[in-house]
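Lab notebook, bench 4. The sequencing result for the construct came back, and we need a structural model before the next group meeting so we can plan mutations. Quick request posted to the team channel:

Model the 3D structure of this chain.
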Amino acid sequence: MYVGYLGKIKTRSPVTDSEDCYLDYFNMSFLLPKLSSKKEVDQAIKSTAEKVLVLRFGRDEDPVCLQLDDILSKTSPDLSKMAAIYLVDVDQTPVYTHYFDISYIPSTVFFFNGQHMKVDYGSPDHTKFVGSFKTKQDFIDLIEVIYRGAMRGKLIVQSPIDPKNIPKYDLLYQDI
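Done. Here's the predicted structure in token form:
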């Protein structure tokens, strides 16, 4: 096995015993469950109880999505009692992409017991986190704050993330 170009590892295929099998070692998306339809997203929102539901909207091949997926996959085991994390492809769920006004990817949306949880990041949009988290600890802290707030019946919480670690973007209003 050796490292080839573009971050791929060339290895023997266990099925055909040829050397034409490539593993993309940068792609952490395969470690997290994916929701590929509106019905699957609806089911996850309805059935996730007493945990924060984390929905990462994006594309598997996007570099910033891959960076966020790495953080999500590494923190998932530590947060398993507090959160359920899913990846949602924006191209396969246009209804939710439009509903949450996903203009930038990755965008992360949070739910608790079927309720959309909002977070005040110090920006005009409290409905989603846009971009990747700078550190694993930022994501862990945010999940803990959302979980504790939701357990107290709050639908909006104050972000514990340092403002300099929150990506800045301009809101785009379409169809106005």
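The chain has four helices and ten strands.
Will bring this to the meeting.
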